[in-house]
């Protein structure tokens, strides 16, 4: 089969380093729902820029943007005044993000059927070049097929298009191009990272979760792409709601988070996921007016009343419920038992384990996340446990209704307090090899 040139582990960068995105934590943001800077009730680029300090505090690596107002903006400018305003805000955002050591990546929608046409290929390449010139570090191509099937390879992506895109970005050897495929199409073996929906569609069941992970790791190894994991997003219900809601749903979401962050590859965290937010169901008119998928509401930041610091406007079509007062970012930063605190602890462990240790201090376990091999343990019914290589991180998950013994190792973090030294139901734990 014809192949397309992409970054592989064997390519290497100066000093033998892997590209920045190899194990990156991407934070996916719908601009419209994140932070409103001008009081019109809709999130915007300047609002996000004003909240970059929060993302530094959280510990993510990349700001992954969706919902960027690109109408009339790009290589084919519509309204010059509107385009200039948006681009000025966008360039301020990318500059500020880079100052915070955050990368900026962008979602680009692509119709596979259209890409049969050379003109469409050229337009896509021009679009990618346009945004890289303005500080974008990578792209996730949202591939769909709205028209008739194209003359393409078995992966559903035109190979000439892939070559053209790679050629357009040839000067940037570590520029990320990933894909998220709608309608179950696949681009295996074409791009750097395959962002898959396997865990976002899996019940809270150890066997199902293990099967989904194993299948994806096998496929990525076969095709030479990096796995990209997500458990919720614009197309999928939030974890808390999907796993039953309330305290049970939140406990299961916490446990799944530790499994997700323990896996090799790229992880995509959906904005608000780190707060343990559930779905909010508005009426049909509200959903249609907001053009929201899955009834998402704006990010709750601080204060005691809706819209909790998202905007100065108070008459939003779909605002956060009043009982979210303890779920705001401000409230959760002050609680050691919050979902936000769990994310921060887990990401700090990953960051510490991956940091360069110039002093040779053995207390920094850098090898925990180094090995990409996943070795499965035998586990009690309703449970799973795996280790990253021979001496890496151990992750254990209990989806049963009984508490179970932990694998041997030093406890680093658990999603719930242990009970008699054992892992309780609906929880997970990280351990370091003894």
UniProtKB/TrEMBL annotation:
An example Gene Ontology biological process: oligosaccharide catabolic process
SMART domains named among the record's database cross-references: Aamy
Domain Glycosyl hydrolase family 13 catalytic: 28-296
Pfam families, A to Z: Alpha-amylase
Gene Ontology molecular function: alpha-amylase activity
Gene3D superfamilies listed in its UniProt record: Glycosidases (3.20.20.80)
Domain of life (superkingdom): Bacteria
SUPFAM superfamilies: (Trans)glycosidases
Name of the protein in its database record: Alpha-glucosidase
Organism: Actinopolyspora saharensis
Organismal lineage: Bacteria, Bacillati, Actinomycetota, Actinomycetes, Actinopolysporales
